[in-house]
Structure formats: structure tokens, C-alpha cells
Write the C-alpha cells for this entry.
Amino acid sequence: MKHVDEFRDPEQAQKLLEKISVLAKQVQAGKDRPIHIMEVCGGHTHTIFRYGIKQMLPPEIELVHGPGCPVCVLPMGRVDDCVALAEHPEVILTTFGDAMRVPGSQKSLLQAKAEGADVRMVYSPTDALSIARKHPEKEVVFFALGFETTMPSTALTVLQAEDEGIKNFSLFCNHITIIPTIKAILDSPDLQLDGFLGPGHVSMIIGQHPYLFIADQYKRPLVIAGFEPLDILQSIWMILNQLKEQRHEIENQYGRVVQNEGNHNAQEAIEKVFELREFFEWRGLGSIEHSGVRVREGYARYDAERKFSIPNLKIADPKSCQCGEVLKGTLKPKDCKVFGTTCTPETPLGALMVSTEGACAAYYSYGRMDSFESKKEPTT
Amino acid sequence: MCLGIPGKIVEITSAENKLALVDVGGVKREVNIICIVDEEHPPESCIGEWVLVHVGFAMTRINEEEAKRTLELLQELGEVQEEFQAMKNSAKENL
Amino acid sequence: MNSSNSKSFIPPVTGKSQTITLAHGSGGKAMRDLIDNVIVKSFDNPALALLEDQARFDLKELTSLGDRLAFTTDSYVVDPLFFPGGDIGTLAVNGTINDLAVGGAVPLYLSCGFILEEGLSVETLRQITESMKKEAEKSQVSIVTGDTKVVHRGAADKLFINTSGIGIIPEGVNIAATRAEPGDMVLINGYIGDHGAAILEARGDLALKSSIESDCQPLSKMVQAMLDVCPDIHCLRDATRGGIATVLNEFAQSSNVCIKLNEKEIPLRNEVRGMCEILGLDPLYLANEGKLLAIVPREYVERVKEAMQLLPEGQYSAVIGEVVETPEKRVLLKTNFGGERIVDMMVGDQLPRIC
């Protein structure tokens, strides 16, 4: 597959890893801890685990997994709200696949479906709009999730609904923004991060400019990275280079997709349909200012929160849940008290175990290599 | 929500509604191309172009030049390392 | 049981526009009609034509073929009923044949129980019974007994089928999930994930178009060919729901060994790969309906692979991994990229992700 296979070349990987090894030793020399690099985006977490990148890196580098999984940071109260919407008899609730299993305080959407709610999985918000066209007697609510990557698709679908005069379509909007998230991480006192792998597809929309404060104020390098394993290795190398030269800049490794200014059409659509919420609740991280968006007044007829009354309750995470610390990168999944015991992909206590990008689920499914006590066989 | 995959536009299914058929490894899906069209790039001009597909939308064109540059950089990195290794090996031999 | 002179007030099931009603399940003339004109007519074999309450077999004949009876059952509830590469009928016959085959048994006879939803078209049922007959013939298996029930609209999803099957295991064949040993090699008979991908596409809600077809096919002939060159196959299982990842984990756990896979060697069609990339799915967990995994002693693996490759159902066979001692009960994958990761048991259904 073009634009994919070239960036998965194992020989290139080996050569790059040797370089990374040399550079990492130079950068880390004399310090009392490994170099901490955080990836913010769930897609990066998935690639890192799926290709076994962690084990390939030298011990001088430690990858810290950030809160970049929109499914994982959904507060239980919002899941309950969504379930309540689904349980309205006249509603068809449409959602992306990975959101179906997130547990609310009583049940997940999948469980609500088993109990009779009309919950349907879609690949695109435009598929949800198709369902609305086919079922004028029902209200089709789309569970809108994701960072800035997915916002334009949702916004464009609303604009299309407006164009066609479709009245039975609305969003339950849980879109979140990346910048306040990164800022909250940087402001966290117990965190020692040396650099960031920047979210490639969010950057495709917002461009490079919004990240400048990370370099200017917080003096950390950020490299916008693609999602293939070579992209990640190359981005790590670029961060190490910056650290060695004591630079802190925003660089773009993903030039084939990310332009400096971002995507104009997409930004315009977002601006038209959405506005920032004053604050938004994040599971495990608490309330973050200006970190979520809602549907503007002008598009109120497409806002499920206005069309329906929802419980809107704040539900605390279970006491044993340490998702917050893992999300911030201060705790490793395997060090969480309930990891692998009460909290497993089958019986998730916290959201990080639900989506395959959640650090805990990814580690559980792909990464427990370091838990093997016996010596690994030499790879052929 | 970042899963984006490169695909090639093979057909315009509706220029008016800005819909096109994209091919990802042989699997085809209709996508919305509104993000990549404007006066300079009408729908028909998109045929044969590589785009990044995300939840049913072609979000952006893949810049072939940039892609080549990235791959060249990667290769250079590898070559420098090979030279370095070769130097190390010959230094060892000369000891 | 002469159907030609039945004059019930429900017209005989010959017309294309007919639908199944509750009367067809009530045990009366309508039901007799349905059985005669559709089911028995399709399956068409001497044992079934007798229409006794049970099929009967000569034990001496059976024991001449081997020393153990294999007996299995499976129910089929797939939606949609028809998909590229097959239908619920082909699944029902081949699935049960394969469950027998992977025990080393020669499949002989099947039973077939239908649960029909009121409103199902008779033509649909006929197409499915014809499918089943064709598949049974391919494997020289007869459908010798069965049952038909009709339930209210909504109480079943169009059509459910249960097939049970018996076969005979020849002497000396001893296949079990507990028998994998360090040093053994892992074989598969072709491309993974075709069936799962075909069903996803056929369901329609993801609006994907491809030429992927289900790999539904019988494996009994191939298994016998494998046993001919290697009578001591250690483990054999067909990979259905949950994909090859599930079967390999079952082997690793039952045998208390580690199975190491080489991603480069696992056959995967470009289109199935494309679908997985778009949806964020892992092909190791996609369903198959014509694939088996075999664990054989190292010194036999090339011969077994060659024997498999001589048959159409095995032409893309490949050695995809090996068995080692540790870490026990684990399946590991060396990725195309060079790194290593674990392949865990699947949790729930794989759901397309957008992250």
C-alpha cells in the first residue's frame, strides 16, 4: 500500500534505531532519569504498542502515554447522558464503534442496545445523516466524539443537514480540543517531560501555530508526527536532536499531510458550527477550561442537548480507579493497583481499559512483554 | 480519533454533492471531498490524487513531494549510520 | 408420503412468491408439503427419504472405518443470510464438517434443524437447502435427519440452522490442543480474515465495496492428505470467530507453551488488509470459515505444507510460526517492522475504531 508500506520498512527501522541509540546516550548522559517523551494522541499510543516500538528503543528513552484518547477521557456522566438519549423510544443513537463499550455508571451503549435501545454503529457522521433521511419518523442522534481531527467531519455533516433541510438529525457533542489538554499536562507539578510527539492528524486541521507556546513558554520541543512506525522513530530522533542542541522548537515530521497553516476549509466549518465551552469535564483529569466545544446557538436545532433533557450528572470515578494518574503519565498502567485484576479489557473499571488506544488496554493487549521473567529467545 | 489512511480517488460519484470513490488497498468507499475542493481544484481534478481518509471524508491531499523528502531523509539517516558503522569497523580492524 | 396428491387449503410450496407461515410448522399437511417439496427434495438421499423419526446406521460399517466416533454440533445464525462466497447453508454444512475434520474424523452424516421465522420466503429456504445439498455432495456427506419449526415473526432472525454431525476417526490419529511441543511448527492453509471482512461488507452499514469473498469451504479432504504424510499431527483446529489469534491462544494455553508468529509469513489479501486499515481492525481476530491451524513436528512441516499446497483449499499454505517453551501460555508476534508484541485473546467483538 502506497504511503503506508514505505513507512513500515524494517531495515530502515534498524538503521534509525542505531542512530537513536547513539543520540539518546549522548543526551541522557549524566542525568538521573531516562528521557521522557510523551505522545498525546491515542493513534500514536496504538502504533507504539502494535509494532512493539517500546522494546525496540534504548533504555535511555521512556515513552509516556498521554491523554489523547477521546473515548478514554469521556466522563461517566456523559456516557450516562448518551445512554439516556439512546433509551428515548423515538431516537436512533448512532456512534463510532469504539464508543459503544465505554461503561457508564449503570451500563454502556452496547448494553443499552442489548436491552432494546436502537443503537447503531457508523463509520462516518454522513452515514448517520443517511439513516436520518431513511427514517424521517425518528430522531437520529450522532454521538460526536474526538479532537479537532474529527470536528470538521461533524461540522460539515451539520452543514449538509442544513442544506438539505433535514430536521430529524442532531449531535450529542463531546468534541474536545488538544491545546488546553497539553497545557494541563505541562502545568502538572509531578510531571517531568522532555519533549512531545505532536498529534499528526489534529495538526492536519489546526496547523503548527497553536503549539508555539509549548516551545516559547515551556521551552519543550514538539515534533508533529505521522502514524506509521517509521514516522514515530524519525520524530523521536528529531526530538533527541533538539535536546542535544538545546533547542526547543515546533517541527513537522508529517509534512506529507500537515501544512503549516492547517486546513482552511476544515477550520472554517468548525468555526461556523461550534464554539468553545467555558470548561469541560475530563475523566481522570477533572475540569479543563476551554477544552470542549458545543453547538452554536444558530445551529441549536442540531443540538441533542437542547432538544432533549439529559440527566447531566457528574459521576465520580470508582475509588480504586487511577486513570487520572495514568492519563497524566505519572503512573504506568502496570503499576495501577487494579490493572489486570479488577480492571481488564473484559471488565473495564476505567476508560483507559476500554478503547484499544487507551494506554492500559493497549499495554494489556499488546505490551506485557516486560512482565515475562524468562529471558527472551533471540529473534531470528 | 485520529485513524486516517491514505487512499486514491478513483471516481467522482457526484460533483454536485462533492462525493468521490476512494480506493484503499482495493477496498472502495464513498467519501466527501469538500475539504479538498475549491475554485482551483474542482472535483474532476481530484481523480488519481492521493488523499488522507478519515471517517468518510477526504481531509487533505497527500503531498507527494513532501512524502518523497521524508523518505529521502530517512534513507540519508540510514546511510550516515552505515558509513559511521563502516568507519568503526575499519578502525577496529586497523587496531 | 406422496406429495403429488396433497390438496390442502394452503397451496403447495412451489410458487416463488410464497412465504412461510405458522401453519408450515404445525405438523399438518402444510408442513408435510414444505418438507417434501423443499427440504427432502433438496437433500435427496435414501436415508432421509424414508422419513422415519431417526436415521439408522450399520455399526459394522462404521467400525470398519476407524475406532472412535466423532460427534459435533453447531448452530448458525449469521446475518445477512447471503453474502459474497456463500450463505448460511454453506456455513452450516462446512462448519460442522470442519469441526469433525479437525479431530481427524472422516465426516459421514449430518442432521439439520431449521427454525424459520414466520414471513421468510420459501424461495429463500429453497436456495439455502440447495446450497446445503451442493456442499454436502462436495464432501460426500449426507444430511440424513432433521427437524423444522416455525416461530412468530420477530422470534427468530429469518432463519436459524443447527447441524450436528458424526464421523469416524481412524486408528492411531491422536489430535489434541494439549499436544503442542517446543520445536513444533505452525501451519495455516491460506489467507486470513476473508470471511469476517466479507460479512462486514455484506452487512452494509459501513458502506464499503470490495471483491472480498468468504472463504467458506470444507477441509476434510485436506486434513486426510495431511494425515497421510504425517500421521502424528499434534494440534488441529479451524479458526472461526475470533480469528487465528483465538485458536493459537487456545493451543498455547492448553499445551502450556509459547507460540511465536512471524507477521511476514501470515497470508493476508491486500483488500482485507485495506479494510482493516480503514476500520482500524486487526486481521488476526477476523473470522474465517475455511482455514485451519496445524501444529506439527518440525521434521514433517515441509512435507505437510507441500501436501496441503496440492489442493485448492491449501494452495496458499504457509508456515507462520513455531512453538517454544517460554513464556508459557502466550502468543507472540514478530511484527513486519521488527518489533515484538503479544497477541492476546480477543475481548468482546472487535469494533472499528476511529482513533
Notes: The two ends of chain A are 26 Å apart (CA to CA).
